[in-house]
Design brief:
The chain has 230 residues and is α/β, with parallel strands linked by helices. The protein has helices at 2-13, 29-40, 52-60, 98-107, 138-151, 190-198, and strands spanning 22-25, 46-49, 64-65, 76-79, 83-84, 90-91, 111-116, 129-133, 158-161, 178-183, 203-206, 208-209, 215-219, 224-228. It has a seven-stranded mixed β-sheet, sandwiched between helices. It is globular and about 50 Å long. It binds ribulose-5-phosphate.
Length: 230
């Protein structure tokens, strides 16, 4: 059922797609539906993928890829999310693509989130917050993260270096970094926490996407619901 809901949200997002657009392509199971649908419907678009997996899928379904430079205008980016709060702030990065996703979202003229309705929360934080960190000195960065969390009033967080899928060692992002998953329970002030964690040397970015989403399309059991942020 959840997968049907994800597909409904992805389908609804197609209404925002026009021929000639450069599209930011997200990562994750909901974004997979969107990328496949864009390919199947034969839109004349170029894609800026937010991960190697998405790049491979886009090519498979016939979407031309763009290598962005300073002049690239991304008309619309569409991506999934792990949690969305009433202000449209997000936790992303469950799939490990947070950095590229944030670069693409930040650059896009319009950023639309597609998600099943279970991602809608009253307060962020039940989903562990992914924080992408540089591998060098990772233990020192984890210690500094603990201190920054405590200073931000988020004491007692359980921090885990994300393990590699089905193997030994730790997961690596497409950019070759580690991810720390921070179990916070509740995030009291997402914007302040994002700013505080981003200040820690060794932190590349956090999975907090603050003020980036323009619209969230939730897939439900029967249809879709929109949350317009601005
Ligand atoms: C990947 C992400 C995904 O968008 C997020 O994890 C949601 O994934 P899914 O659509 O599979 O529920 O941020 O880094």
């Amino acid at each position: 059922m959840t997968d049907d809901a994800k597909k409904r949200a992805a389908e609804a997002a197609l209404e925002e797609v026009r021929d000639g657009m450069t599209l930011g392509l997200g990562t994750g199971s909901t974004a997979v539906h969107f990328v496949r649908l864009v390919g199947e419907r034969g839109f004349d678009v170029r894609g800026v993928p937010s991960s190697d997996d998405t790049a491979a899928l886009a090519q498979e379904v016939g979407i031309e890829l763009a290598v962005p430079d300073e002049t690239t205008r991304i008309d619309l980016a569409v991506d999934g999310a792990d949690e969305v709060d009433p202000d449209g702030h997000l936790i992303k990065g469950g799939g490990g693509a947070l950095l590229r996703e944030k670069i693409v979202a930040q650059a896009a003229e319009r950023f639309v989130i597609i998600a099943d309705a279970s991602k809608r929360v009253t307060q962020l934080g039940a989903f562990p917050l992914p924080v992408e960190i540089e591998r060098f000195g990772w233990g020192l960065t984890v210690r500094a993260l603990r201190e920054a969390l405590a200073a931000a009033g988020q004491e007692g967080a359980e921090l885990t270096l994300r393990p590699a899928k089905g193997g030994s060692g730790f997961a690596l992002t497409d950019g070759g970094n580690y991810i720390v998953d921070a179990r916070l329970g509740r995030i009291h002030d997402p914007a302040a926490l994002d700013a505080a964690l981003t200040m820690v040397p060794g932190v590349v970015t956090t999975g907090l996407f603050i003020g980036l989403a323009d619209r969230i399309i939730y897939g439900t059991e029967t249809g879709t619901e929109n949350q317009d942020v601005r």
